[in-house]
Design a protein that fits this description.
Distance between the termini: 33 Å
Strand content: under 5%
Oligomer: single chain
Number of strands: 0
Shape: elongated
Structural class: mainly alpha
Largest sheet: none
Order of helices and strands: HHH
Length: 67
């Protein structure tokens, strides 16, 4: 849940609930447009917030603020 925006960048289900996971997979399998939208949004979200360049800058800024 820290990385996924439910319905926007992915689909969250309850942990260890195979029925919920199966329903989410079937829903995505039956809706190619949603599958592409969620996939594209997920990749964009990860690149903007968690790429190695972004994370490195956050660490650099954090350590710089300590001095």
């Amino acid at each position: 849940p820290e990385l996924i925006l439910d319905g926007t960048t992915g689909i969250l289900t309850e942990p260890n609930q195979s029925v919920g996971i199966a329903k989410a997979l079937v829903a995505l399998g039956n809706d190619p447009a949603s599958r592409m939208r969620i996939g594209d949004a997920g990749r964009q979200h990860m690149v903007q917030n968690f790429s190695h360049q972004v994370v490195a800058k956050k660490y650099f800024d954090f350590f710089k603020s300590l001095s």
